[in-house]
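Chapter review: from sequence to fold.
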Amino acid sequence: MGGAWQRTRRIGRAAFRPVRGRDLSLHAAAITFYGAIAVVPVALLAIWLTALLAGGDQVRRLTSYAVETLPDAIGAPHAVAALVEAGVGLTPWLALAALLPASLYGEGLRRAFVSVAAPRSDEHLIGWRGRLLLLPLLAPAPALLLAILLALPTTTGLVRQGGWAGALGVVLSFLAVWLVLTPVLLWVFRVVGPASPDWLSTLAVGSFTAANLSGFLHGFVLFASLPLDLGLPFGGLVEVGAAVAVLLWLYLFHVIVLAGYSATLALSAHRRQRDDQRGFGGGAGVRVRG
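The token string follows.
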């Protein structure tokens, strides 16, 4: 038992070695700033592309299941319904205008990842590289979003039944979000980041990080259903309290992403070192792209 605990501690220390002394909280807050600007444009573009593929009425019908099931404590159903309607009704010119703020998310991720993977890097055009490398994710966005939307009639129906059926609905919803987030994180960790961890490390840690993010997002839905007075610390301004709550959860979301990226780099470096010791140089490892 003692040996297993020591191994666990050693693995945990190694996983967070890349962010040691880098102020993880500050970098997560920086990504959150970019994410706060980009989250709505990204969602609008994903919904618009999905509507082009599957039809606007189909998108409205499928998202209506989520709108009817989401808790109304902080106005989530109204916000989601308005977002879907705006996305379905997007014009090509409005979609083009949304590309710039949407790409800012890539810049925020790239800047934070550079500080983790290569803190003394002299890389130029960090922001533009991050923006351009994130945009290809829009191509599979309709398929990924449709995968979640097609599961909504089943998962929300089970949740409404409550009991064991409700628990099964939550599990199925968790699995759907997990499977969708995994390829997104593989791209973000391997391509948007400046380092190139090996595929096996990226798949293992990226999938684990996606599972944590899926659980975290479902936890936010639970949080939104609690009878909390979010306006209490802000003089009764509930809208301000709700906005701060969303930003706080977005910040914690990015803490998990950065921790996952750090663990990916650590595992990849460990595999490279192990292969070198065995005489298999040039195998797995982390390569930093200049």
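Two observations follow directly from the output. Residues 2-279 form one domain. The first helix runs from residue 2 to 15.
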